[in-house]
Amino acid sequence: MKNDHQKEIQNWKTLKSREIFKTPYLNLTEDLVRTPGGKEIKYAYYGKGVKTVGIIPVLKDKKIPLIYQFRYPHKKYSWDLPGGKVDDGEIPKEAAKRELKEEMNIDATRFILLGKFATSPGSNALVSHIFLALDSRISNDRDDEVYDDTEFIQEMKLFTLEEIMAMVKKGEIYNAQTVLCLLLYKEYLSGK
Amino acid sequence: MKNDHQKEIQNWKTLKSREIFKTPYLNLTEDLVRTPGGKEIKYAYYGKGVKTVGIIPVLKDKKIPLIYQFRYPHKKYSWDLPGGKVDDGEIPKEAAKRELKEEMNIDATRFILLGKFATSPGSNALVSHIFLALDSRISNDRDDEVYDDTEFIQEMKLFTLEEIMAMVKKGEIYNAQTVLCLLLYKEYLSGK
Hints:
Order of helices and strands of chain A: HEEEEEEEHEEEEHH
Number of helices of chain A: 4
Oligomer: homodimer
Largest sheet of chain A: 5 strands, mixed
CATH superfamily of the largest domain in chain A: Nucleoside Triphosphate Pyrophosphohydrolase
Low-confidence stretches of chain A: none
Number of strands of chain A: 11
Strand content of chain A: 35-45%
Helix content of chain A: 10-25%
Largest interface: A-B, 64 and 64 residues
CATH class of the largest domain in chain A: Alpha Beta
Shape of chain A: elongated
């Protein structure tokens, strides 16, 4: 059955591909596609070529830092784990290290890949790499805040995993990737 | 601190909003926004007004059905839990019931809301409602397959939770929402 499917993939033909919209934060592509059944369809999707990272930093005392940031599309704040795009020329682990420093002023050297996931595979080509950084420590040497323009980060606080799971239940944490990171971390702990 | 943030939200002003692209499957919006600091910025995001559902159906013998479907943006197949958009006039629970029937020919009446999550809150307004359907049963009365054009569903199979978690570890299941559903179900089981 799987072999049939592999053959079928070869029978999906991208006839045309055009970029409809692009900013540093998102891109939209529309392809003209011939399906294995011979039908020609238009298929629009986001995130062509985009990789992101999500990081769950754990400090020495097991506390987890979260950032409180304004999420314009939802017109509300959320408590989130850090994350962001992998830049051109970067490998995901380097991006994780950089984002952790930029967003939280946290240094870490050991990054454990918990998984690679498609955020929304039907409409988005984006792949997110989820890292655990167990040796995280807050640095004292922040110079300037180097936040991206659209991130609107307001504050950072430390929480226990139990406090955070209670915030998920109350809906104070509603970012799917943050919740996925937390549950993968719980899986990691239970498998140790 | 929270009160300050509430006040700040009022100081985010949407000056203009225009739809850049729209299909039945996705939409893209660009707003002109005045930030609390008085700066005018463009903010593009997708999924304005969109709600979706994700469902984890559990059969009487505790088996979980997955569907094998082609994910064009990733040029590969994935094993997924069912899900889809909430139609106009529908409540999320009705959409969960409908999608479960359409994608898997499964009937269920008891839907337990495990949470509401923002798929990608920085760039997507979409909110996904995750439901557990413990009383799921496969119906014998399938007439015609009523799949959406872009879903490309190929087959359905039943798995144990243990088999599924092994597929997640191997990367055979890579849809973030499917993995989130599974881990929320594990949380639900451990809290019982």
